[in-house]
Design brief:
Layout lengths: L3 E2 L4 E3 L1 H4 L15 H10 L5 H4 L14 H13 L3 E3 L5 E9 L7 E12 L8 E2 L6 H14 L1 E2 L3 E5 L5 H7 L8 E4 L5 E7 L2 H11 L4 E5 L1 H16 L8 E8 L6 E3 L2 E4 L7 H8 L3 E5 L5 H4 L2 H10 L5 E5 L5 E6 L20 H13 L4 H5 L4 E4 L2 H9 L5 E4 L5 H9 L10 E3 L9 E2 L7
Parallel strand pairs: 6-11, 8-12
Antiparallel strand pairs: 1-5, 2-3, 4-5, 4-10, 5-12, 7-21, 8-11, 9-10, 13-20, 14-18, 14-19, 15-17, 16-17, 16-19
Helix pairs in contact: 4-5, 5-8, 6-7
């Protein structure tokens, strides 16, 4: 099943860069232009200068300076800014965080960083849970070809109800960490090096019987597959057969999934009354009064939406002041024909119903348009979604409950990926904590 191996991580030399917080970043796809500018200002060695280089914009194109990124990367290695571990290791990785919008709800997500052998989805060892977009994959492939390095980790989930692997790793997280950094969201990231051969052998052995689900990093995983195939066609490259990943137990109480809200824009002749009438075919549409940003767009509305979704799929719709509603799937809704091609395990998921019954049926936004993000934006903060409507940047936004872990797991194992951005695993894995350099002269 899953093949996991230790590796010699490339990492920042704290003696040269100082505070790790000045050089590591959020994953590339979470770096907004404002974050990019701030990262650039923190340090000449901030990883954003490699993974989100100015001019690249996150998509492949003539203005994307991949060779410049590769040159800086090699220069940092030559100057000792980035250094290699002397022996292969696994890296125990803990994230202490507070759930957004829930003051006092502190959690710790525990996992470990290692290399995982790349597997085609058809092998049914690594399973995706979301569909992907073509643009980000083209961009990441060009960067990987230029740098021959993985700077961020794929987030992979494994099932271990009794926590045997976590128990094996716990002994290595009691001493002072090898690396520790607090990110801009207040999450504390701690990393310990595990180089003991016997412990590594036990962890690798237990992981060998696992199936894996991609939580975050679908685009980068598929990019790594494409690069592996490219290298195979050029005569082979054993190091390209692996990708760097953080492995986390899916049963842990430290796992948090947040909702991703949908902002819909550029609709022709959008009308709130007509929308509510169209939605009434499948949903009970109940108007809600907006009482202000703190009560309505903070925890108050999120709690109301969660309560509405306890026994039936539910979502919120907002098209500006005085146009707020909670939509709950009708108990007698006949979905047989309209969802005939939808897998049974997805027919009562909020995000699937939104995409199929509203975006497609009510608005005529087909799957191709969704894939190309023609009329759709994704945001984490409920208030941000509302502000885009109020400012005129969007016609309507849809406010979501989080997709349950069970639905993620079951649909992934069934081979039925969910729509893009169906989940938001929080917090994100930092990029630059460890780097997998395929050309490391010391070996993997």
């Amino acid at each position: 099943m899953a093949q996991i191996i230790p590796f010699r991580a490339l990492h920042y030399n704290s003696g040269l860069v100082g505070d790790l917080a000045n050089v590591v970043t959020q994953p590339y796809d979470k770096i907004s232009p404002e974050m990019q500018a701030r990262y650039y200002g923190l340090s000449p060695y901030n990883l954003a200068r490699i993974i989100r280089r100015k001019g690249g914009g996150g998509r492949a194109g003539a203005d994307a300076d991949y060779q410049g990124a590769a040159q800086d990367f090699r220069d940092w290695i030559d100057r000792g800014v980035l250094v290699s571990d002397g022996e292969p290791a696994l890296y125990v990785y803990h994230q202490q965080y507070e759930v957004p919008g829930r003051p006092g709800d502190g959690r710790t997500r525990r996992g470990f960083i290692g290399l995982g052998r790349l597997e085609d989805y058809g092998a049914r060892i690594v399973h995706r849970h979301e569909e992907t977009l073509s643009g980000p994959k083209a961009d990441r492939l060009e960067l990987l070809k230029a740098t021959r390095a993985h700077f961020g980790q794929i987030f992979l989930l494994y099932s271990d109800p009794e926590g045997c692997i976590e128990h094996e790793l716990d002994a290595y997280s009691v001493a002072n960490p090898w690396e520790r950094v607090e990110d801009e969201y207040g999450t504390v990231h701690s990393v310990w090096r595990l180089a003991d051969p016997l412990s590594i052998e036990r962890v690798v052995g237990m992981m060998g019987e696992k199936k894996l689900v991609i939580a975050d990093g679908h685009h980068r995983y598929e990019t790594a597959l494409a690069y592996r195939d490219l290298r195979r066609g050029q005569g082979g490259d054993d190091r390209a057969e692996y990708v760097m990943a953080t492995f986390v137990r899916m049963e842990t109480d430290g796992l948090t999934i947040l909702p991703t809200h949908r902002v819909v824009h550029s609709l022709a002749g959008f009308d709130w009354t007509a929308f509510c009438a169209a939605a009434d075919r499948f949903f009970e549409v109940k108007a809600a009064a907006a009482a202000g940003p703190e009560s309505e767009w903070g925890a108050g509305f999120a709690a109301r939406l969660a309560e509405a979704g306890r026994d039936r799929p539910a979502l919120g719709a907002y098209a500006g002041p005085g146009r707020l509603a909670v939509l709950r799937l009708r108990p007698d809704a006949d979905l047989t024909n309209v969802l005939a091609d939808v897998p049974p395990g997805q027919r009562r998921l909020d995000v699937v119903l939104l995409h199929r019954l509203i975006l497609q049926v009510a608005f005529g936004i087909d799957r191709q348009a969704v894939s190309e993000e023609r009329n759709l934006r994704y945001v984490r903060e409920l208030r941000t979604a509302a502000e885009q409507v109020e400012s005129g940047e969007a016609d309507i936004c849809f406010l979501m409950n989080a997709t349950p872990m069970k639905a993620v797991r079951d649909n992934a194992f069934a081979g039925d990926p969910l729509p893009q951005k169906s989940t938001d695993f929080y917090p994100k894995l930092l990029s630059g904590v460890t780097i997998y350099w395929l050309d490391n002269p010391a070996g993997i």
